[in-house]
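for the recovery benchmark. tokens below, seq after
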């Protein structure tokens, strides 16, 4: 047995969680699964990727995000590492973000991210176990955030009734494109952000 390193993140997919191969059809106003169920769409009517739910089965796929757990974490502000509620104080919910302060003045205000927030123990664990994160990542308190878009596969209508597969992209809720995407990750835009030092609260 080898010593455990970082826990397998809550949002990571496992090899035992197969992606469903579903037939997609065109309707007048967008795409649909041929065997669609009510749970295939979110409350905005956006279609989501189907994937089996069997967390812990097989091997973790660190590079793959499980669509249901990512959406769950992002929608309910759960820690992306352990799945418990993310940390929140008067300055807002805690996020660890790759430092991109050079991108624009006021960053990360207005940033759209697929990465859910974190709880304090997981943020500290990550910082302690991964020294390389220091300097590359910043801890940010986010007072306001809006689940406003999805990252997913775009589709286009064809004359044959079977949609044509396009590239992946970001699609905002409430747009006509939101009917032509199979979503894989929920996106939040971040506002009223404050940089914080994780060591302060020790
Ligand atoms: Zn956590």
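predicted aa per position
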């Amino acid at each position: 047995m080898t010593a455990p390193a970082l826990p397998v993140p809550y949002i990571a997919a496992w090899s035992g969680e197969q992606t469903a191969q579903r037939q997609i059809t065109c309707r007048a106003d967008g795409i649909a699964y041929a065997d669609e169920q009510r749970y295939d769409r979110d409350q905005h009517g956006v279609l989501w990727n189907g994937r089996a739910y069997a967390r812990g089965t097989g091997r973790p796929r660190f590079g793959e995000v499980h669509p249901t757990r990512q959406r769950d974490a992002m929608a309910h502000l759960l820690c992306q590492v352990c799945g418990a509620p993310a940390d929140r104080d008067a300055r807002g919910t805690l996020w660890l973000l790759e430092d991109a302060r050079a991108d624009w003045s006021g960053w990360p205000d207005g940033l759209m991210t697929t990465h859910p927030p974190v709880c304090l123990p997981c943020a500290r664990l990550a910082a302690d176990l991964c020294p390389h994160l220091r300097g590359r990542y910043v801890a940010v308190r986010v007072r306001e955030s809006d689940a406003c878009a999805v990252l997913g596969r775009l589709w286009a209508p064809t004359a044959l009734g079977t949609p044509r597969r396009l590239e992946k992209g970001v699609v905002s809720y409430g747009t006509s494109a939101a009917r032509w995407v199979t979503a894989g990750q929920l996106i939040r835009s971040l506002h009223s952000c404050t940089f914080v030092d994780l060591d302060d609260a020790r």
